[in-house]
Design goal:
single chain, two-stranded antiparallel ribbon, elongated, mainly alpha, 12 helices
């Protein structure tokens, strides 16, 4: 059977390394405002560590998405050409992706690489209980394990969850109501930030024209945040801290990407589309937290020259020199 112990060892090592670093620079191990900041910061910087490691993969993901966007006109041509022949269509599309060096699976790779980290942290934090006998598993010392087991965020243990029982919280010396309030607020923040990251991604790439792909986008935008109402009840508070921090990091990283690699604007259908046929789609200027497109500045039209009325039909031409050059005659 495939063992995940190596993931648990890796997650534990990163957590313990950061905890030692915060302890070394003077972050209090004891609770301040009901919070053991050294352990909370260790979870937050676990996210930073993982995202820095995965940053090159993320850049490749964005470049692959841009390449896929640029290939959409050619993909549509192949779909029209091989309508009804799925086998030939798949071969032609794979050849197109190979020739243009575009990988459709690259868009999901960073998310899949983060799943083992999430599972490892979930398992590690679930073990944090003073009554647990296996305190030295995955490289922990007894002292480190006991310290983490008693670590709290605003008096709620990081191993506690919204669905915890009174008996479980009593063993950790915590009040169940406090745990539910802290966990509930964090779950709401987790749902909101998950929705914002999905919305930002869809605004970045645009809504898909294919009905099936559009359904997947709607599932990501609404389905996943809604599912967190249920799954959030079983997530330890430490895992929710990880999730929220990861979402905030993603929002900032995607905003940077929107400026560095702006999305392509597909040509409009109809008359405008015919006029722009054969031209390469231009990147759109995107700004704001949610990736909204900013309208280009209005260009003022040059001021029109004043119109001069022409002579009426049949009228004699007027010579300005002749009329204005002679002095008026004196009378008397």
């Amino acid at each position: 059977m495939f063992s995940l112990d190596w993931i648990y060892y890796a997650i534990s090592w990163i957590l313990l390394t950061w905890h030692s670093a915060w302890d070394a620079i003077g972050v209090s191990v004891d609770a301040v405002i009901g919070t053991n900041w050294a352990w909370i910061l260790s979870i937050i910087f676990l996210v930073v560590t993982v995202r820095v490691i995965l940053f090159p993969v993320f850049v490749k993901q964005i470049k692959s998405q841009r390449a896929m966007q640029a290939l959409q006109p050619k993909v549509k041509e192949l779909q029209e050409k091989h309508k009804g022949d799925r086998e030939t269509l798949q071969k032609e599309m794979m050849e197109l992706y190979r020739k243009e060096k575009a990988n459709p699976l690259m868009g999901c790779l960073p998310m899949f690489l983060q799943i083992p980290v999430f599972l490892g942290l979930f398992h590690t934090l679930k073990r944090l209980n003073p009554d647990n006998q296996g305190k030295t598993l995955y490289g922990w010392t007894v002292e480190q394990f006991n310290s983490a087991s008693n670590a709290k965020l605003f008096s709620a243990p990081i191993s506690g969850k919204f669905g915890s029982t009174a008996a479980e919280m009593a063993s950790l010396g915590a009040n169940l109501t406090t745990v539910k309030i802290v966990a509930g607020v964090l779950v709401c923040i987790m749902i909101a930030t998950t929705y914002l990251t999905s919305r930002q991604m869809i605004l970045k790439t645009g809504w898909a024209e294919d009905p099936q792909q559009r359904m997947v986008q709607r599932l990501m935008l609404y389905g996943i945040p809604f599912s967190l109402l249920i799954s959030g009840a079983i997530f330890p508070i430490g895992v929710i801290i990880y999730w929220v921090t990861n979402n905030l990091f993603t929002l900032g990283q995607q905003q940077w990407v929107l400026r560095k690699f702006p999305p392509l604007v597909p040509p409009k259908s109809g008359t405008a589309g015919k006029a722009t046929a054969g031209k390469t789609a231009q990147p759109a200027k995107v700004g704001g937290l949610l990736g909204r497109k900013t309208a280009p500045p209005a260009v003022k039209a040059p001021a029109a020259a004043p119109k001069v009325a022409g002579p009426k039909p049949g009228a004699k031409p007027v010579n300005p020199k002749k009329s204005g050059g002679r002095p008026a005659k004196r009378q008397g």
